[in-house]
Design goal:
With about 450 residues, this protein is α+β, with helices and mostly antiparallel strands. The chain folds into 3 domains: about 1-20 and about 255-405, Dipeptide-binding Protein, Domain 3 (Dipeptide-binding Protein, domain 3); about 40-50 and about 180-250 and about 410-435, Periplasmic binding protein-like II (D-Maltodextrin-Binding Protein, domain 2), CATH 3.40.190; about 70-160, Alpha-Beta Complex (Dipeptide-binding Protein, domain 1). The chain contains 10 helices and 19 strands. It has helices at about 1-10, 60-70, 115-125, 155-160, 220-225, 240-245, 270-280, 285-290, 335-350, 360-365; strands at about 40-45, 75, 80-85, 85-95, 95-100, 140-145, 145-150, 180-185, 190-195, 210-215, 230-235, 250-265, 295, 325-330, 355-360, 375-380, 400-410, 415, 435. The strands form 4 sheets. Strands 1, 8, 9, 10, 11, 12, 13, 14, 15, 16 and 17 form an 11-stranded mixed β-sheet that branches. A 4-stranded antiparallel β-sheet has the order 4-5-7-6, covered by helices on one side. Helix 1 crosses helix 9.
């Protein structure tokens, strides 16, 4: 009964979907059934505003694609362990680290990848709010073309240099990459096509072209997988996700790691009003009715797989907003839309004037990353070991953690290799290992 109340609560009180909700019947353009040698079609919810991981509009989806086209000195495997990629060797002496680069590394245009590119990427990351390990490093210097010297108060150099610290060309040519894949084509609103880069310096070489397709709703994503019009997808956690995937005849891998669902507050609310909104929510009810076994309550912005607690447990003394506030979530994300309804119902029950509206995910994960006009938005965020940006400190309360949730990747039986990675490296972390036999 409680779940029914949460799922039918709407801003207009009529039981109809909230304003702006996108119907689940929305579909992406259909494609022919695959055959051997065809690209692997991989679905993501929403579309990134940019493929540049250091741009101000970069999102988790940006970073997931960046992992396939840009290298870093180290990478993160699913359990959060850093492994060397571009780094051939590293010497650490307290606050100093000297990294030797693989001399075989080159860009997709054949030019060598050098220490100058590493330093330029460090400089770009330092000037942004991106959750990059480069931001924890105070200086970087090219000793010679294959050697970089770093300085900083860093506890774990390998983990820091693995945390979304992508190496981009110093000349900022968006067409030049150096990952296992290169960009073959990008069609705004539909897809980006990643093809194996024959100059990739790592092993193994990528075997399959991957069409990363941008999907508007989880319902559409599941339907396309069932019909064989998608081969695999990064599937957002939702109610009964495992059961629904199994019923569709699909395979899945999931992990409880660093992904969280959180409230993000706009500038229109004071710190006391933000605390008032957080205090009005019964997160225990939401956990039992919507999250269930797919996650747990998180009181830190950056939970580890074995730890979900943090300083936000002490948030109190808030003042409910006295003016109407707007609450938003991405329309195509089933779980976040249900949480939006629950948040609306609970705020409305405490006499907070609230307007709630799901927003098209292409807008929510696109232009709204630059300037979100809502007072409160419900968002997913990936993390990584040791991530401290934004600060995990409740003083400003720019964000408030709700739940730590499982990260899913789903695929059809014809595809081999996908594996969930609940870090910032995301589901394409091992795409160079994927293979497909074709067929539907």
């Amino acid at each position: 009964m409680l779940l029914a109340v949460l799922l039918t609560a709407c801003p207009d009180g009529t039981g109809s979907p909230p304003r702006g909700r996108e119907p689940e019947t929305t579909t992406s353009p259909a494609v022919d059934a695959p055959s051997p040698g065809d690209p692997i079609r991989f679905g993501f919810l929403g579309e990134p505003a940019t493929l540049d991981p250091y741009d101000e509009t970069a999102s988790d989806l940006t970073r997931y694609i960046a992992r396939a086209i840009y290298p870093s000195l180290f990478t993160l495997v699913p359990d959060g362990t850093p492994e060397p990629l571009l780094a051939a060797d590293m010497e650490v002496d307290g606050s100093r680290a000297t990294v030797q680069l693989l001399r075989s590394a080159s860009w997709s245009d054949g030019s060598p990848l050098t220490a100058r590119d590493v330093v330029a990427s460090w400089r770009r990351a330092r000037g942004t709010v991106t959750p990059s390990g480069f931001r924890d490093i105070s200086s970087a210097r090219a000793v010679d073309p294959a050697t970089v010297a770093f300085r900083g108060e860093v506890n774990d150099w390998e983990a820091t240099l693995a945390r979304a610290a992508y190496i981009l060309p110093s000349e900022r040519d968006a067409r030049t990459t150096a990952g296992p894949f290169r960009i073959a084509r990008r069609t705004p609103g539909l897809e980006v096509v990643l093809e194996p880069d024959p100059l990739w310096f790592g092993r193994p070489k990528a075997k399959e072209t991957i069409r990363v397709r941008f999907i508007r709703t989880t319902g559409t994503m599941l339907a396309l997988l069932e019909r064989g019009e998608l081969d695999a997808a990064a599937f957002p956690s939702m109610v009964n996700a495992a059961e629904r995937v199994q019923a569709a005849g699909l395979q899945a891998d999931s992990a409880l790691g660093w992904e969280t669902i959180r409230l993000s507050f706009g500038t229109g609310l004071s710190r006391l009003q933000r605390a008032g909104v957080a205090e009005a929510l019964d997160l225990g009810v939401m956990k039992e009715t919507l999250i269930r076994s797919d996650g747990r309550r998180a009181t830190t912005l950056h939970p580890a797989p074995d730890r979900a607690s943090g300083p936000y447990r002490s948030v109190s003394g808030g003042t409910p907003p006295e003016v109407e506030i707007s609450v938003t979530a991405p329309a195509g994300d089933e779980l976040l839309t249900q949480l939006l309804r629950a948040v609306y119902a609970q705020l409305d029950a405490t006499d907070v004037a609230v307007e709630a509206a799901p927003i098209d995910p292409f807008i929510f994960y696109g232009e709204w990353l630059r300037a979100d006009p809502s007072d409160v938005s419900i968002r997913r965020a990936s993390g990584a070991p040791g991530l401290g940006i934004p600060p995990d400190d409740p003083a400003g309360l720019d964000h408030f953690p709700l739940f730590q949730v499982r990260t899913y990747v789903v695929w059809r039986p014809e595809v081999e290799g996908p594996r969930s990675n609940p870090t910032l490296d995301g589901p394409l972390w091992n795409a160079r290992d994927w293979t497909s036999t074709g067929g539907s």
